[in-house]
Amino acid sequence: xxxxxxxxxxxxxxxxxxNLPCNHSTISGNEYVYxxxxxxxxxxxxxxxxxxxxxxxxxxxxxxxxxRKSSTLILPHATLRDTAVxxxxxxxxxxxxxxxxxxxxTRLAVHP
Amino acid sequence: KAGVTQTPRYLIKTRGQQVTLSCxxxxxxxxxxxxxxxxxxxxxxxxxxxxxxQRNKGNFPGRFSGRQFSNSRSEMNVSTLELGDSALYLxxxxxxxxxxxQFFGPGTRLTxx
Lengths: 112, 113
What we know:
Chain A is an all-beta fold.
């Protein structure tokens, strides 16, 4: 699985968009980009995933660059409850396994 | 639908003892994965079970083992506990393998004294 690089921490004002970058320059053609987050003292929570097209769901949007070497998770209107550690993970969909390799993630602090 | 449940939530053991942690996946889910989270190493994959078979294993010593039952419930066991085994142990379940979203439980906080 490709390695990912994320900023250690970020701040965001409540109500504003939070844009969390992730670099995955060694990603291979069939690897997907997944995002999970972990709110303090809870288990990680799935947010979104994508291959090459931009994706959107009720939680967030995922923008993947055309060369697929980086991506951005967008929380359109951050709330205090979005304060968490956000993990960007690159993995293969096939092979019949569910192993997730977590990096250090980005600690997002949403403030009033 | 009930989420992933893990028992116990908190556990205190002493060095040399063994411990068994339990995970009940979401109903209908057949894959269960285990992770260890520590402040120093972060979240690390332990192993994954699917249909009672271990399908994947992380880089942990043989003291860490697991199993899955026919109802998909899973247990992990750590023998001869060491101080460094103090961690949050997380269980995740998914319907199948590959692309499926994984749902994590709240974890079991193990403290080894």
